[in-house]
Automatic annotation (TrEMBL):
GO MF entries: nickel cation binding; zinc ion binding
GO biological process entries: protein maturation
The organism's place on the tree of life at top rank: Bacteria
PANTHER family associated with the record: HYDROGENASE MATURATION FACTOR HYPA (PTHR34535)
Protein name: Hydrogenase nickel incorporation protein HypA/HybF
Pfam families named among the record's database cross-references: HypA
Keywords: Metal-binding, Nickel, Zinc
Length: 114
């Protein structure tokens, strides 16, 4: 399950950026694009397992926000939503330029005492 390694990486990132304040984090928000192969329920389960094993994080919450896939049409010079992995603009031109949808990052950190 690669979600557990993702959760471990999230905590490594939080620890390296917030050092002594990690224990004061109340909630984190993770943004995952549909192409990132991250399943929200699976990453939530991995997060729950991680904080169960690391009890000093047990009050921390995580929210996963899923971004749709957005591509760019060079013919129309505009972004368009991708539905059912069909990378074809309304004008009929195919596109391989992904603007949004393959990302995975920590988008928000909320502290208990801020």
């Amino acid at each position: 399950m690669h979600e557990l390694s993702i959760v471990k990486d999230i905590f490594d990132t939080l620890t390296s950026h917030y050092e002594t304040r990690v224990d004061d984090i109340q909630k984190i928000q993770v943004t995952a694009g549909l192409l990132s192969n991250v399943q929200p329920v699976l990453i939530q389960n991995a997060f729950d397992a991680f904080i169960t094993e690391n009890t000093h994080y047990r009050d921390m919450e995580m929210e996963v926000v899923v971004n749709d896939i957005i591509a760019y049409c060079e013919h129309c010079q505009k972004n368009f939503p991708v539905h059912f992995h069909r990378f074809v603009c309304d004008c009929g031109q195919p596109s391989s330029t992904i603007v949004q949808g393959n990302e995975l990052y920590i988008s928000k950190v909320i502290f208990k005492h801020d």
